[in-house]
Amino acid sequence: MMESDPISASEVEKIIDLESDTFFMSQALRQAQKAYMAEEVPVGAVIVRDSQIIARASNQVETLKDATAHAEMLALTQAQSVLGDWRLTDCQLYVSKEPCPMCAGAIVHCRIERVIFGCGDKKGGAAGGFINLLQQPTLNHAAEVTPGVLEEESRLLIQTFFREAREKQKMKTQGEMLS
Ligand SMILES: [Zn+2]
Question: pTM score, two decimals?
Fold first, then answer.
């Protein structure tokens, strides 16, 4: 008689739900890693429609010398150009960190259906952190919000970036004092 083998741990790892929030957030995190490698604040975003990624972007403020070049803004522009429409009504935006007021404003203008983010931002977040622009009853569009997907990974990347930036700054200041 054949006995069915129990699924091994490595096999379980291979079973990835390609339509899950975790999967798409891991793709946004890859963009955040890309930003980190480019010495940008590590935030990444992807936009999904019908379970397909139609745009992916990383924060490029320093590279483009453009304070509006947040990952979400670049991803929105890409998605609009892919679809040939400024309405992103059936789209979901995955971003590793809670969107700021600028990006939340753009998200509402583009009518994104749902926003999924990693770590929250109590000081600057506009998806419920310090303000909720994504769900303002007075605006003509509101997005569903799913917070905290791969939260720890997103936060750790940002914390590492700022710790290293502080260390670099400290070393630079010490170097200047010695010269
Ligand atoms: Zn932003």
Answer: 0.88
